[in-house]
Amino acid sequence: MNKSSDAASRFILASTWIFRLLLGGTFIFSGFVKAIDPWGSLYKFEEYMSAMGLPIMHTLLITGVFALCVFEFTLGICLFLGCYRRSSPILALVTMCFMLPLTLWIAVSDPVSDCGCFGDFFIISNWSTFWKNVILTLMSVWLIKFNLKCTTIISPAFQWLGVVVSLAYMIMVCFCGYLFQPLLDFRPYKVDTSLISQSNHSEDDEIDYVFVYEKDGHLKEFGIEDELPDENEGWKFVERKHKQADKETDKATADDKTFRIWSRDGEEDVTEEAIAGTGRQIILLMPSMAEVSAATTWKINALQQWANEQEAEVIAVTDGTPDQISLWEEMALPDYEIYTADDTAIKEVARGNPSVVMLNNGAIEWKSTLACIDAEKLEKEGGKYKPSEIIAAPKETLKSLSIIYIICLAVPIAMSFMPRIRNAFSSYRHKSSQ
Questions:
Q1: 363-369/355-360 β-pairing
Q2: Are strands 313-318 and 337-340 parallel, antiparallel or unpaired?
Q3: Which one, out of 44, 317, 391, 426, has a CA that is 20 to 30 A from the CA of 282?
Q4: What are phi and psi of 15, to 5 degrees?
């Protein structure tokens, strides 16, 4: 009976440790990969809001993104290190009680291609996400009952310190990712890769697009092989979009890594004409032209002046309609060509609205949000600065922040183990003296 009871106790203890590490590690990983690319999480939130028919408020959504990243990561640290052993599993279960029905709805109705729970680093299907959450929910229930049987890694006196440094670390990572670019880039268009001609498809393979025109309040779609309507007959171009086909076709489209650029009316593919294969070129990306503030025009003009001194061509690429482009030209008086592209493709190249990409012989040299460009260096003898020197964000930010965080977290862990080591040493000396 005693042996059976001991075996059961050992099983419960081992299972609790495993579940605690798995559950905590999942929350840590989920919060971290979202935090290094908050723009990607913001875009996913916008997809959810659009699918639900709810209003999209940028400030509120980005606040929600920050809060979710910080919450998930900090809760994961608490679970992983055994901080607040009673309340952490309860908070995890409350979270899963919200996420479980949400991911079930996503799996059944399929409003978005993936839930975005692990950012762009690890994309899983909607049904896989749901079953993953079922397992996490069961782990949370187990920990509510048995978590007190496992010891803490940080003693209760210092647990608040672990929470504070985790909160601070995540907030700084989120802000750096939002103001500059993702601190780790999991997208196809990384620095030092070509912006075009990355596709494995043959030249005969074409991405299938649909052109939407409107006449007398009615919308009609035209394929690439169809004869497009005459605008003199009252037809007005509305938008261009990928043709909705089966998932294999969609996957093939997603695998095409050439950034396709279209004429301002959205009817002609001008990628080869727009992207310079030699020399330096600056691309101003505006995935939502209607939301770009007029206050940014002075910095864009300063950037163009700097580009002229660097002998670099400037173009703009946006998802805006012809009317929005005309309005922008009246407001900004640009001295650069404006092209169009799908907003999803623009967001995949660089984060921010607007964002800036520097090409060198067709390859990405650097990219940044416009807000992170150092305006003073552009205006004051801007020509003497190298392209990489006008970016205000420091290099290796994530590495520096992570080292500081690990050191700060190691302090309470070390302080927690010192009494345990001292007691173990005293016990050993006492036994040795007998």
A1: antiparallel
A2: parallel
A3: 44
A4: -65, -40
